[in-house]
Each structure stands twice: as structure tokens, then as C-alpha cells.
Amino acid sequence: MILSSPIYKLKRRAKLLARDNDIRLHEALNQIATKEGFKDWSHLASNYSKSTPAMEIMRQVSSGDMVLIGARPGHGKTLLGLELTALAEKINRTGYVFTLDYNETDVWDRFEKLGFNPRDSSRSVVVDTSDNICAAHIIERLAGAPDDALVVVDYLQLLDQRRSNPPLDEQVRALKKFATEHGAIVVMISQIDRTFELSSGGLPTIDDIRLPNSVDLSLFDKMCFLNDGEIQIEMAA
């Protein structure tokens, strides 16, 4: 059974329901669960107890989507991206990791922390740590791929660090065009501006994305923000 919304959104909906109707939270949770087709919240939770943020993202992405994952350092955005590539085979895709931030040993060490062993997978994950990574390099690598791809790029702000590379906005447009035409899913990990840490807390938003060079963020179909163990997945404006 597919939920109408991710678990975290259902919980938020229950909190609002409890507040607005002056009922206990467990009663509101049970009402939400019943609407989702379960006996009660415990029944729902038992069916989705192993759900992770990556699984929730997987349920919401479609062919041709561009997804942005944003967080400050140390809040799990890279591990989330790697978990998405490890799960790619579950939606009949091959996972690709293009990183300008880590070497190949670092990447596989992080896969190991996730409990992912490529030898146990019917589709191997492709890891590319070339210094030449840019949109053109990614598209060239994927052009001859026999399978639909789920691509994670680590990370957005490094794509135009070389002066010989096109402007960042041009590269994002090229990747979006490729995703649309080939049915790929492209996930781009993004830095969040350090001024966010001076804010009152909560989760980053689209306004907190660090953009040293202009990018049309409407090219992204979905955005995912992380902070202190919390996560929010939203449609781009």
C-alpha cells in the first residue's frame, strides 16, 4: 500500500489535527492511519518502520526529475545521496555517483557504513571521481549506458570550479535536458550558505542554497533539506 504522503508529513498532519480539534496526539495519528487504509497508527508504522528518507524520496521521484539535496556539512546529505544510488536497482535503474569532493576509497567506505555491498546487488553502482567532472563529462559517460540511470552529483557548486567549464546555470540546464530526454533521474547535492547557522534553526530553505554563480532553481523538480536529523522533501517552486 502506497501512502498519500511520506511518514513525516503524516505525523505533521496529525499534530495539526490534534491541535485544531483539541484531541490527543495518538487519537489524531489513528485517524490519519485510518484514512490511509490501516487499522490504526501502530498498524501503519509496523508496515513502514524500516522506511528511510532515501526510500521516501524514491517513492516521489519520476523519470526526468532533477532533485536537489541541501544541508550544511555533517548533516548527512552525502550519505543520503549514496543511499539513493544503492537503492536505484529497486526501481530498475543503475546508480551513478559523480563526485569532485571525495576519492573512490572514501565513497566505498561510506557505502560500507550504509551496509551496501555491490557484490550482493544485481546492478553495480558506478563511481566516477574524475577531476574532469562537469555536465558534459556526465552526459558523455551516460550516453552509452544500457540502463536507465539514477545519477548523484557531489556537488553542485563544484561543477564550474574550472574556468574552462561552462557557467553553472548552463550545466544544470544541460543535465535537466538530458534527464528529460533519456528518462534519467539526476540528484544534485548542494551546499547551504553558512549564514544559515546564524538563523533561529529549523530546516534550510531554497533561499539558503549557496549560489556563488546564478542558477535557475526552478529547473529542479524536487528539493530535500536536512538539518539535525530532520528532513523535508518539497516540490520546487
Automatic annotation (TrEMBL):
InterPro entries for this protein: DNA_helicase_DnaB-like_C, P-loop_NTPase
Membrane-spanning ranges: none
Enzyme class at the top of the EC tree: hydrolase
GO cellular component, one term: cytosol
Any GO molecular function: hydrolase activity
EC id: 3.6.4.12
SF4 helicase domain ranges (all copies): 140-214
Domain of life where this protein originates: Bacteria
Pfam families for the chain: DnaB_C
UniProt xrefs under SUPFAM superfamilies: P-loop containing nucleoside triphosphate hydrolases (SSF52540)
GO process terms (BP): DNA replication
Keywords per UniProt: ATP-binding, Helicase, Hydrolase, Nucleotide-binding
Classification via NCBIfam families: PRK05973.1 (NF004629)
Name under which the protein is recorded: Replicative DNA helicase
Annotated gene: dnaB
